[in-house]
Amino acid sequence: MLYGRLDAARERAREVLREVYGRGGALGTRQAMVEREVRASEQARRLTQLDGVERGLCFGRIDEAGGRRTYIGRIGLRDDEHESVLIDWRAPAARPFYVATASDPGGLLRRRHLHTKDRLVVGLDDEVFDLERMSEGDRRTLVGEAALLAALRRGRTGRMGDVVATIQTEQDRVIRAGLQGALVVQGGPGTGKTVAALHRAAYLLYTHRDTLERRGVLVVGPNPMFLRYIGQVLPALGETQVVMSTVGELFPGVRAVAADGPAAAVVKGDVRMAEVVAEAVRERQRLPAGDLEVWLDGRLLRVPHAVCAALRERARAVRLPHNMARKLFVTELLKELALAEARAVEEALKLAEMEFEDPELAEPLDLERDLDEVDLALASARLWQEDPVRQAVEELWPELTPQRLIGELLASPETLWQVAPPGLDWQALVRPQDSPWTVGDVPLLDEAAELLGEDDSASRSASREAESAWEEQQRYAQEVLETTGLLEEGIFDRADVLADRHADAGADLSTADRAAADRQWAYGHVIVDEAQELSAMAWRTVMRRVPARSLTVVGDIAQTGSAAGARSWGEVLDPYLRGRWREERLLVNYRTPAEIMRVAADVLRAVDPSQSLPESVRDGEAEPRAVRTGLAGLPALVAEELREIGEGRLALLTPDARQAETAALFPGCDDLEAPVVVLTVTQCKGLEFDAVIVVDPQAILAQSPMGGQDLYVAVTRATRRLTVTHENGLPEVLAQLAKKSTL
Ligand SMILES: Nc1ncnc2c1ncn2[C@@H]1O[C@H](COP(=O)(O)OP(=O)(O)OP(=O)(O)O)[C@@H](O)[C@H]1O
């Protein structure tokens, strides 16, 4: 019956599309065109949404004490009488499905999970909250087996799936938390932080569509691999207005993927780098060694050192970004050069006077009196065309791009030495001029962009124009809404939303496209996943993108792998939120079987004894094991593991230095969806695989100051089987594997 409704809704959408396009040809008035455009794009969007929910359309049912039954699904559907037959999982009416517990059933008698395959119900799971109040007939319909465990046993695909059918109460609290303020979701590996965060994005977009459609939602993830892994979840939940980005992509025009070594990462992530960048900008506002001397057409124009210093002070005092203050500096300097030129001319005249001894020429030139503003302006404009003058300005106050400032700074030990505060290990930053951008450079570029400023006079006038065009669009959209009946149909309830979607400016760009291209875009909400990896400088970059501080911060302090990452949430967030953030903890591990978590527990104890281990919900099929083998033994081991997991996927997790040689053994292993992938620990952050082989744990421990955390991440990626290989013995923290294995 529900699929019948779905088909009918699809057919309706297709019909409208056919009708709209069928009119084709002569389009008539502009209003008719807009009307057609609006209807077509709305129906196309609806159709995509309807197609996306085919699988598992309805996955739950709740029975209330009063006899009412409600079906829960991926979208809401109504019957011909407009009665609701399926409730969208994000709607308030669906909430009891997620939050009812045995101790607090919230008026529910039963929660039923439905498993479907190709439109057929293939299994049911019931949880009964109040058997006493159930009718005899209903009792006979009860069925068992937990839906969650069934969902968790499914093989992994290389892409994260949505979990709308099995969201747990603690996750539901995270998903449905209010939009305002900052929420920290702390949880161990596999506790569903990422799925909860993505479902939260879908929930917020559904619940606060007005605000978030215009401002967009930004999801920041640790690496491109991870973004590919989670990329399908939001579209499957019907959401497309989301920008996904790594920190390395937050600065438009730069796509940084390279990582810094631990020493440089620590320094670049240090919040004192904000001072370094500010000093580097000031350092480019220079004074000449003595007086400024510019030779022009055989004449020397001299501006005294003290005057240059005064000009610099005046330009700095306006407190504008460097490139804007430069205009003031240049104007004033040109005036001084014009005066200097006039003085030089006077000198020349004096010489001529001495030569001809003509008393008529004796009257000296009074510059203040003889040169008025107009003369000065004309002289300045003429001087500005002269190369020697331009060169002098370039020396004293150059126009700078963030890329140029940071690129030149990092390539200059002298400047770094000069601008770094005492105690900062600036030597770790030095590198050749044309090095590729690293992820750690991006916050420095962003910082520089703030301090340099863009010349925004053109964009300001463009934005004034855009604003009046926007008002016009909105007036027009209001008319369209009134005359087309879209208002009554509930497709749009505000003219600005309609106008935004069809605004001429930026043609076909969605909010997400516009936001991603604009460094100064203020997002409506920002979700940071694997947030423990962000440095203090990266937080400054992220916070600039969310001035309203509406944030979800998701991570696990015990998994911090970056040497510049977080040691506590308070330390990174308090500078911006002054304690005004809430923390939710997720305590159940849905990924890793108990046997593997016992191994992880030893690693965690060594890394941070204060952190608690999440509890696994299920037991695994095999004990984790250690195998003594070098590179040559890996193919046979991989073949053996693949036989064990059947359709599933396997990852070899290696120390950074061994990735290339390991990957060479397995062609095609850089595709996340291949049956075998070879990744470094940094790349495997947030991912999971049916079987994992951790190669050379000793080298993983030794490769960075955060080696212990890295090993903890590596051993918690498997959903079914864990193998550790080594050549020269296991590290102490994995001693329990040695006891169990034949080495
Ligand atoms: N309620 C749930 N129902 C079904 N599967 C779930 C549920 N919660 C989590 N999972 C599954 O558990 C696995 C781990 O989830 P996820 O990757 O979100 O954990 P995480 O806390 O982000 O882990 P990590 O810190 O290791 O990155 C995923 O396969 C996810 O689909």
UniProtKB/TrEMBL annotation:
It comes from Nonomuraea guangzhouensis. Residues 166-593 form the UvrD-like helicase ATP-binding domain. PANTHER family: DNA 3'-5' HELICASE (PTHR11070:SF45), UVRD / RECB / PCRA DNA HELICASE FAMILY MEMBER (PTHR11070). Keywords: ATP-binding, Helicase, Hydrolase, Nucleotide-binding. ATP binds at G187, G188, P189, G190, T191, G192, K193, T194. It comes from the Bacteria. The keyword Mitochondrion does not apply. This is HelD family protein.
